[in-house]
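Before our next group meeting I need something from you. Please put the record directly below this note.
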Amino acid sequence: MSEILNYTLFTIGGDTPVLLIDLVTSLFGLTCVVLAGRNSKYNFWVGYLYTLLLFLMFWNKHLYASLILQPISLGINILGHYRWTHPHKEEESSADHNALKVSMLTWPQRMAAVATVLVLAALWGWFLSLMGNKWFAGIFPADPVPYLDSCVTVMILVAQFLSALKKWDCWIAWLLVNIAQMWLHISVGHVFMPIVCGLYLINGIVSLYNWYRLYVRKA
């Protein structure tokens, strides 16, 4: 397994490896978010495979907060798949009664989401720093950026949950996630993922506009 995860396609600058797992994960991730931005329920099928690939990639880089996120992400993905295709009567899209319409959070809900991210990220980062440097020192390699890793983890969970409920605000959360992820991937030596995060940003801006139009049309 280690040989597969570390299979190098080529190197950049003579010492920065470009791994096969990074490339494949990037392609699945891009496909997933483009489909989501186009309001396609098929993004969930791609998302299932993307979750597995991310788990393997983060295991390879010892990013434990992001790694532990993947089983939770799978659960949210399943929830979202069900909610998008089984709306309540008052939640039905005007374009398709079998599809969930786009809605928005209230301002109190938005403030609660921000507070949740800040508190949970701080607590989880502290836990990871203790786990790598004290509790399991010498057993597992320490997370190189525990607080950044934790912040990205919590923001992704919030963004995914909002996506599962088809809230327009999820794209604002995803834009913040993409910026933080770009920093995270660069800090641990990933090559393709920072580029992909840049493409995610572009897709997020386009999707923010597309979903707003859907919200106005109650679609």
Notes: Residues 107-135 form the longest helix (29 residues). The radius of gyration is 18 Å. Strands lie at 8-12, 16-19. The chain has a mean pLDDT of 85.
